[in-house]
Amino acid sequence: MNQQKFIAVFKEVQHKMYFLSKRLLTSHEEAADAVQEVMAKLWEKRDTLEKVKNKEAYAMQMVKNFSLDRLKSKQAGHLRIVHSNYEDDHRNAQEEMERKAKVTMVQNVINTVYQSSIKWYCNGEIYSNMTLRP
What is the C-alpha separation between 83 and 114, in angstroms, rounded? Predict the structure, then answer.
């Protein structure tokens, strides 16, 4: 694979590689370094890339693996894996008591409002309260 063909194939993929790496590494500099390293590796393997059917998927997998390796390495001790969809189902006793107290308070307010709003009036009382004449 010559230089022009390499650039044509991987220029578009380079942006996707960066965004994937940035998502994993959470650092602009680390993501840019990862893409640069993977592009260098791809350039070194350019003669064997002719056998690869989906070059974009191959490059994306390489940058993903490189980024994950970078997270695991000791060089990247300042990086951490970020779980954006992580939920903690474990509650401590204090949080559970506060939650129950809030629920009870809301139920009491709803019951008070409901009971105080149910009053039956006859038409005459409604007219007199609204200062209307029948």
Answer: 43
